[in-house]
Write a structure and sequence with these properties.
By secondary structure, the chain is of the alpha+beta class. It contains three helices and ten strands, in the order H-H-E-E-E-E-E-E-E-E-H-E-E. The protein has two domains: about 50 residues; about 150 residues, no CATH class. Strands 1, 4, 6, 7, 9 and 10 form a six-stranded mixed beta sheet that branches.
Length: about 200
Amino acid sequence: MYIKQIFLFLLVAFFLSCNPNSGNPSKEQYIESVQKKEFKKNDELYSNAGKLIGEFDFNVKATEEQKKDWEDGKIPWISLENPGSEINQLINADELVIKKTQINIIFDYPLNKPATFEFRNDKGFTRRDLVLLISEKYHEIYKEEELTSAVKTIPLQKRTGIINRNETQGKYGIWGHDLADLVLSGVEVHETSEGKINIILLIES
């Protein structure tokens, strides 16, 4: 539940320990503003999502080469930019994890303007189903952001200093991370008093 909060604290620690100009007020003020914005957004997200009724993770079976870094043989996330390269390694890929045929998935990271989309599947949803549709929607979100923003994404090779993606001002207000940075480690399943199913994504970067 608190993955994004943990990430933000680590981000601050990185800046303060590695940046020789960490005393620069503008830098610290920016980090603080990002923290406050994300904490507020998360509070609103959880207060409106409904009661937590389930959660599950997405683990990828490590190859022999990958086991050098993952001794337990499991990678605790799957790529959202290119899940096709890992989908056959996804553990319990075809397990039916959501029996409901209609769900709402909340896309909030790294978006200043979170968006909720409805998905339907008459057979419910497996891990494989969720990974592929979440990836596809993220691709659409990033594409639409670029088309609707006057501020364009600075190409990676032209970035200086911290190479995080610059903030753009399109439909979703994406900041901090390219799609290539995002991986899905898990989801939380929430249910409202009206019986609607809301999915909160646990995204790492």
